[in-house]
Amino acid sequence: MMRFVAWAALVFLLLATAVGSLAIGNQTDSPLTVLAALFTPESVDPATATIIRDMRVPRVMLGIIVGAALGAAGAGYQGLFRNPLADPFIIGASSGASLGITVAVLAGWQLTALGLGPISLAGMAGALLTVWLVYAIASVAGEVPMLSLLLAGIAVSSFLGAVVAIMMLLHDEHLITIFSSILGTLSGDWNRVTVGGGIIIPGLLVLWSMSRPLDVLGFGDDAAQSLGLSLTRVRIALVVTASVITAAAVAAAGVIGFVGLIAPHVARMFVGPRHHGVVPASCLVGAILLLISDDLARTVFAPTEIPVSLVSALLGGPFFLYLLKSRSTRWGTN
Amino acid sequence: MTQLEARDITCGYGKDDVVRGASLDVNAGEVLCLSGPNGSGKTTLLRALARQLPLRSGGITLDGTDVGRFSPAEFSRHVALAPQYERRDWPFAVEAAVLLGRTPHRGWLLPFSQADHDIVHQHLQELGLLSLRARPITELSGGEWRRVILARTLAQQSHVLLFDEPTSGLDLKHRTSFLTQIRQLANERQLAIVFTLLDLNEAIRFCDRLAILSTCRVAAAGTPQEVVTPELIKRIYDVDIRLIDDKAAPLIVTR
Question: Which residues contact B158 (CB under 8 A, 6 or more apart)?
Fold first, then answer.
């Protein structure tokens, strides 16, 4: 019963946030107008209906899909690394994806008929190559200790971040294009929604199917093996899935931090620690967080729109520090 | 007839061998105890038996089949290991943690059945954990957490159970009842059980056979009465003892 209430609350919050986000903009409409525009468009002023249906709906859909992707990838990485501070950035997936996207932009691939296709593929290749590199650096005598994996991820992340910055400076004619595709924003069209969703939604289902291995990994390697898990196989499957989801999210909306860090923690408060609940709940919470961040990004300095990644960092930074102060000590001694 | 047999195995970490040329076997219905001084290789040998450490030489067979031939899930239905230390990253309820012991039978996706819940309930009861079933494992004391690990391992219902220092951190009541229980399981369900134990008196009382490890090797093996002699204890532990003849089993007293 408690669980049902928690799920109902999450779904209701997401729907309410989505309707609210559809109402907010240069011209703010009432939620009733939004619902009317969605279900009976002929009853609404045509200009308003067009703004809501063709401009705001894709934006909100993108927010939901990308937020869900970041939240679930965060839950996957936190479970895999047994680290409450892990998120898609720690392993290097995001910086790898942004490097791949930068290369794609500089090569001019963004102009092809496939639209988002080549860029998201380059992002995915970048994310997987980075994760493979991090794994190769971190592995010691056939094993991959978690601490060295985290350290290698941070080091490679910083390195790739610097490479991306240098590439941007050297090609300042593309600065705006790269900057806008890496610095997260949800402004986009249906193309981004369908291409991002086409990769992200199957990825989320695959990640969800690994809930039980994620649970078992929480007992440590020896116990997980004793319970029949092939550690190498499970880790590779988790890393590949979470990285593909991350890369698709980066390709669709740029690099957006901290949603993947916060969402799983909030999700656990709602639905408890078991991953078959945490993974989908992280999707819902991630979507809600990203929509709220985007609403703030659009409205606080209106009419100037700031990148949503800055808002999520402003909200997430203090949360990260709070986690560091309050939980990591207990986590460390376990 | 379940039999786990290690022949002449050598394994270790890094450059050093921690176990060298060890051979032992355990049959269905039998309890084998590994004892020996700190650092003599008990845990390493147990991990090797659970296929968690690559062998440098020698081989391990289960019912005559090389253990390397089983898939991880298949092997976990035959052989279960309760490690001495375990992480508890997530605050699962006690019952949910023990339920994960059924993973080898359900894989990644199949939901746990009523039968799984019944098995879990039974083992929670046997280990005195029923009243704690809803508590988060992160809030348990060390001894209570040990009992949860033991319950989860028993719920796995493998034919061969390996326990690393199962009684460490348990109070007198719980250690006695646990050892009595696994003794009973060996007899009634014909399980093969191996545990490591530092306490020789407990080992003598509850095992059928005792193997003493010393400096990476099996120094002595046999029934407790055969193995535990003042001479051997003096040689291995450098401690003088005398044996008191209890009706059930001899009792060691240090001088």
Answer: B76, B77, B78, B79, B80, B104, B191
Which chain B residues are within 8 Å of A331, Cβ to Cβ? 89
Ramachandran region, residue A82 (left: φ > 0; alpha: ψ -120 to 50; beta: rest): left
Query: pLDDT per residue over A254-281, tens digit each?
Result: 888 889 989 999 999 999 999 999 999 9
Average confidence (pLDDT) over A40-58? 84
Q: What is the mean pLDDT of residues B156-171?
A: 91
Classify residue A305 by its DSSP letter: P
Q: Please enumerate in sequence order all residues whose Cβ is within 8 A of that of A232, keeping only pairs 6 or more positions apart, or say none.
A: none
Nearest CB neighbour to A218, from listed B80, B89, B106: B89
SS3 content of chain A, % helix, strand, coil (to 5): 80, 0, 20
Contacts for B53 with CB less than 8 Å, ≥ 6 apart: B11, B44, B47
Here the tokens at position A167 are 């590439």
* pLDDT at A212 exceeding the cut of 50: yes
Do the Cβ atoms of B76 and A273 come within 8 Å? Answer: no
Whether the CB-CB separation of A58 and A188 falls below 8 Å is answered with yes
What is the value of pTM for the model shown?
0.87
Kindly give, in sequence order, each residue whose CB lies less than 8 Å from that of residue A87, ignoring residues fewer than 6 positions away.
A70, A73, A74, A77, A78, A257, A258, A260, A261
Q: Provide the β-strand partners of residue A183.
A: A255
CA distance B77 to chain A (A): 8
**For residue A122, which of A148, A102, A151, A147 has the smallest C-alpha distance?**
A102
Residue type, B102: R
CA distance A274 to A6: 14
A226 contacts B100? CB cut-off 8 A = no
Cis amide leading into A303 (omega within 30):
yes
CB within 8 Å: A225 and B50: yes
CA B88, CA A330: separation in Å to the nearest integer?
11
Q: What ipTM, to 2 d.p.?
A: 0.89
- Beta strand ranges found along chain B (DSSP E): 3-13, 16-27, 31-35, 57-62, 65-66, 79-82, 160-164, 192-196, 209-214, 217-222, 241-245, 250-254
